[in-house]
Amino acid sequence: MPFALLKHALRRPPAAEAYWPQPGELGQSYDVVIIGAGGHGLAAAYYLAREHGIKRVAVLDKGYLGGGNTGRNTTIIRANYLTPEGVAFYKESVELFRTLSAELDLNLMYSERGHLTLAHTDAAVRTARWRAEVNQHLGVDSSLVDPDEIARICPQLNLSRAVRYPILGALYHPPGAIARHDAVAWGYARAAARLGVELHPQTEVTGLVIERGRVSAVETSRGRIQAGKVLQAVAGSSSLVAGMAGLKLPIRTVPLQACVSQPLKPFLDTIIVSGSLHVYVSQSARGELVMGGSTDPYPLYATRSSLEFKEGLMGPMLELFPFLAEVKVLRQWAGMADMTPDFSPVMGLTPIENYFIDAGWGTWGFKATPVSGKRMAECVATGRQPALLEPFALERFERVELVGEKGAASVGH
């Protein structure tokens, strides 16, 4: 046996480096306090430190890192939206996702699969053509494809005409991708911590101190902390936290459910979405079919699952993939979707000085994680609304200048 190998075998293994530091004592004051340790809040903390040199940042969460909607979504990433404002925004997010594994030094399992939004009616075909033209005009790869092309892209789909909702065409978006959602949160958390950002899970925000129209402090379950600026990024709890600041948001919070099947041999590379059938599905790297549908039809601050969701989902799934009839559902869960009237987010400045908001994501917050973090960090650092975020300002509802993205919702994802 070589001496070097024997020496290595007898050496005591080094202590494993902590993925991120254990939470320490909560400081008395910070330049920026971020409420919400999901993907958006952690990304904003990272970009504040890396791009703007603001490192006296505390990220607070009443639960654990990435334990909200970041850990409850179905990981689809795309830019094939309907409005020019939405397409430009998500195009930048896809571009950031493509290099994010290298930037964060962590394999996010980012995998471009192609994304098919199926059209079952003439109206859906027209909408797909409309979206394709807007996408192409703004440099996003999307096109309307017919059933023959769909069969080439995804031969597993049932393209029979003898079904209730035959497939007439689809919007094909080759850059459509999936990634490991919890790894995105972990990557941003670790990178932010290495730059000096403090992470404080299990720290619930219980109130906000507003003095003369300006936020000055944050009340928490661990005491009061002074804050130069505050950013809230709490997804389904957006209205509750904003209410602490005296803001009433045009948001309706509803559950959004999903489920996964038992692991199967890989057979589905493409992401499949059907707005008419209220279903979407992709296959994970572990072989599970990740499936979801539309949001629940009633407001509720809860993440419970229901039998109705599962029953409503399985019929459309079996119309698209009849051979899955004997496959078992492994588990199901729910997140809380904060829906705005125009199906677009609320981002940037608020009427309260130095209080910023990242909310209204509804069913597509995960795919916006890098761009929202980067642009909200810019907004917080400069005190100005970035051009990319101007269409999503809270005040658009007063001006009645809505960004109607319902046509690109497809289903709840």
List keywords for this structure.
413 residues; FAD/NAD(P)-binding domain; D-Amino Acid Oxidase, Chain A, domain 2; 2 domains; 8-stranded mixed beta sheet; globular
Any overview of this molecule?
The protein has 413 residues and is of the alpha+beta class. The chain folds into 2 domains: 29-75 and 182-251 and 342-408, FAD/NAD(P)-binding domain; 115-176 and 253-339, D-Amino Acid Oxidase, subunit A, domain 2 (D-Amino Acid Oxidase, Chain A, domain 2, 2-Layer Sandwich). Helices cover 29% and strands 24% of the residues. The protein is built from 11 helices and 19 strands. It has helices at residues 3-10, 39-52, 84-98, 100-104, 122-137, 147-153, 181-194, 238-244, 307-320, 369-382, 396-399; strands at residues 29-35, 57-60, 76-77, 111-112, 115-119, 143-145, 169-173, 177-178, 198-200, 205-211, 214-220, 223-232, 252-261, 271-274, 279-283, 289-292, 329-339, 346-349, 355-359. The strands form 3 sheets. Strands 1, 2, 9, 10, 11, 12, 18 and 19 form an 8-stranded mixed sheet that branches. Helix 2 (39-52) runs parallel beside helix 7 (181-194), helix 2 (39-52) packs across helix 10 (369-382) and helix 3 crosses helix 10 (369-382). The longest helix has 16 residues, at 122-137. The mean pLDDT is 94.
